[in-house]
Write a structure and sequence with these properties.
By secondary structure, the chain is mainly α. It has 2 helices and no strands.
């Protein structure tokens, strides 16, 4: 029984680690989704892409 309890505790700890990692990934994805409105750097990259389009059409 002690060995089984030890294995179960190890499984629970591993699952808790996976949960925390998933929570971190979720927060990162939420920041990426909400980011462009708040971060001017990304919008500037988008503007550069828009500026490139006329030069391509001129060629």
């Amino acid at each position: 029984l002690q060995q089984e309890n030890g294995n179960l505790q190890a499984q629970v700890q591993a699952q808790q680690i996976q949960i925390t990692q998933l929570q971190q990934q979720i927060t990162q994805l939420q920041q990426q989704i909400n980011g462009p409105a708040q971060q001017p750097a990304r919008t500037s990259v988008g503007r550069r892409r828009v500026l490139r389009l006329p030069s391509e059409s001129e060629d």
